[in-house]
Structures are given as structure tokens and as C-alpha cells.
Amino acid sequence: MIRFNNVNKWYGDYHALRNVNEEVSRGEVVIVCGPSGSGKSTLIRTVNRLEPINNGQIYVDGIDIHGNGIDINKLRSRIGFVFQSFNLFPHMSVARNVMLATMRVMKLSEKEARDTSMGLLEKVGLANKAGAYPGQLSGGQQQRVAIARALAMKPPVMLFDEPTSALDPEMVGEVLHVMKQLASEGMTMVCVTHEMGFARDVADRLIFMADGEVLERATPQAFFERPQHPRAQKFVADIRHA
């Protein structure tokens, strides 16, 4: 589904991604974790070309997405992305936020787009907020709208870049509940998160990064109980003592 082949990324002299080789299978839930500044968000943002790479290849369904001649808009329509900040249009209703891309990109009619929007808002528990505006919602509700908006394009893969980091603690659970539901339905998901309880419950596999490198790959049980790399051991120990 997604394959990283010797991917490198620099910001000036800073080597942000170092020879990353990784693969995500269809239907797999992969959590990317590690200390701040380890390259987690940079990695996930390369998958829909929000970040360019300096060398290597990234394949999605066999297509080299950083190759020449790639239609970026078409690519992004097939890769759902949920950001830390919700990035909703404040002047549009909740329903309109979810509808917009389906009408502009998928060319759905107004009725088709609204029906899709309402179905997805029902899925994330916000059908009763369809006529509200983002500023009238809590942070957790806004993030659930952002998830519904990403799902509206029917993407085969969803990327989450620390989707709960901007939320108050009491709002985190409602967003994680929606993500757990997606995982149980077989959605391919790659998620950068500090929510290690969620990772333990939902992930098929964890990828641990530090200093731009993937240092460890393991099942949640193996990672939390028997981390191998010294940096991973310190990371897990810090979690236990937090």
C-alpha cells in the first residue's frame, strides 16, 4: 500500500529523514512514535507531498508519488489527512465543510454531497451539528468534523498527524473512539501520536523513530514489554514514569 525506499529529507543542513525504508500493508494500522523532533510528522507529511523529499522513493499503490508528472490534487484526494489543527473553514457550516471537496473534486451533486456529509457526520456522532459553524464546536468536535471531511473522499488510506495534541484532555477520548472505529472497519491508517494507550489497543505495528531514523519496528506488546534499541528502551521507561 505505502512503501518508503531509502527516503532522505534535509532542511538546510539538518538531516530530518535518514534512509527510511518502511512498508505499510493494506488494512494495517501503524503508529509512528518517538521523541519530539524525531521526524515523525515529517515522514507522514511526505506521503501526500506536503513535504518534498531530497532522494529516495515513496510508493502508494505502486505509484512513485514524488516522481515527475504526478497529479498532486488527484493524489491527495486518495489520501485522507487529519492535522493537529483542524483546518476547517470558519465561514462554512459543518455540513458544508464536509461537502466541499466532494462537490469540487468528485463532482457530486449538491444532494449527493449532502447525503454523504450527513452519513459521515452520523458516523462521527455529529449529525446534530450539521448546521453549526466550527467556532461553535469544541476542539474534539472540530477534529471529528475534520475526520469526516477526510473520509468524504473515500480514501483507501488515512494519515493522522498528532490528531489529539491540540485538544484538552477530556476531549481526547471522543476523537480516539472514532479512530478506533475506523481501525476496526479495516481502514489503512498511519498515525503519529503520543497516545500510547491508543497505540497499545489499536496498532498492528509500531515504528519508533529518533533523529530522523527508524530504530525499531515491533508489535505493541513487544515494543512496550521488550524494547530492543536503547533509545526505545529510554522512551518506554519515560512513559512508564510519566
What is the element layout, followed by pairings?
Blueprint: E1 2-11, E2 14-24, E3 29-33, H1 40-46, E4 55-60, E5 63-64, H2 72-77, E6 79-82, H3 94-104, H4 110-123, H5 139-151, E7 157-161, H6 169-184, E8 188-192, H7 196-202, E9 205-210, E10 213-218, H8 220-225, H9 230-240
Parallel strand pairs: 3-8, 3-9, 6-7, 7-8
Antiparallel strand pairs: 1-2, 1-4, 4-5, 9-10
Description:
One of its GO terms (molecular function) is ABC-type amino acid transporter activity. InterPro entries: AAA+_ATPase, ABC_ATPase_HisP-typ, ABC_transporter-like_ATP-bd, ABC_transporter-like_CS, MetN_ABC_transporter-like, P-loop_NTPase. Residues 2-236 form the ABC transporter domain. The structure is a single chain. The protein is an alpha/beta fold. The protein folds into 2 domains: 2-78 and 157-241, P-loop containing nucleotide triphosphate hydrolases (Rossmann fold, 3-Layer(aba) Sandwich), CATH 3.40.50; 90-154. Helices cover 38% and strands 25% of the residues. Strands 6-7-8-3-9-10 form a 6-stranded mixed sheet, sandwiched between helices. Strands 2-1-4-5 form a 4-stranded antiparallel sheet, with helices on one face. Strand 1 and strand 2 (14-24) form a beta hairpin. The protein is globular, with a radius of gyration of 18 Å. The two termini are 35 Å apart. The mean pLDDT is 94.
Helix count equals 9
What is the string of helix and strand elements?
EEEHEEHEHHHEHEHEEHH
Rg, Cα atoms, Å: 18 Å
Q: Specify the biggest β-sheet.
A: 6 strands, mixed
- Structural class by sheet pairing and helices: alpha/beta
The total strand number stands at 10
Overall 3D geometry?
globular
What top-tier CATH class of the largest domain fits best? Alpha Beta
Relevant CATH superfamily of the largest domain: P-loop containing nucleotide triphosphate hydrolases
Distance between the termini: 35 Å
Q: Kindly report the oligomeric state of this protein.
A: single chain
CATH topology annotation of the largest domain = Rossmann fold
- Hey, roughly how much beta strand do the residues contain? 15-25%
CATH arch. level architecture of the largest domain:
3-Layer(aba) Sandwich
Spatial order of the strands in the main sheet? Answer: 6-7-8-3-9-10
Q: What's the average pLDDT?
A: 94
Give the uncertain stretches in residue-range form.
Answer: none
* Whole-number count of domains: 2
